[in-house]
Amino acid sequence: MSLKARAREKVERAGISNYSFDQDVLVMCGNRYTVEPCDCGEPECDGVRLLKDAPVAGRVLQ
Fold first, then answer.
1. pTM for this predicted structure
2. 20 CB contacts (<8 Å, ≥6 apart)?
3. 3-class secondary-structure state, position 37
4. Which long-range contacts (CB under 8 A, 24 or more apart) does 54-62 make?
5. Could you give the CA distance from residue 53 to residue 36 in angstroms, rounded to a whole number?
6. SS3 label, residue 5
């Protein structure tokens, strides 16, 4: 199963239906999450880690 498919399964299992993918970035509730593999070894781990991306508007350009 692909990483994207595992992320989709994780989101749907949580009861969230308002999500989409922008290439390999999960967009959910107005937030963007980078999808990465997880190998923490925890027994309940589904092998997917979602890392929240920093908002573009909050970045300071110099």
1. 0.75
2. 26, 27
3. strand
4. none
5. 12
6. helix
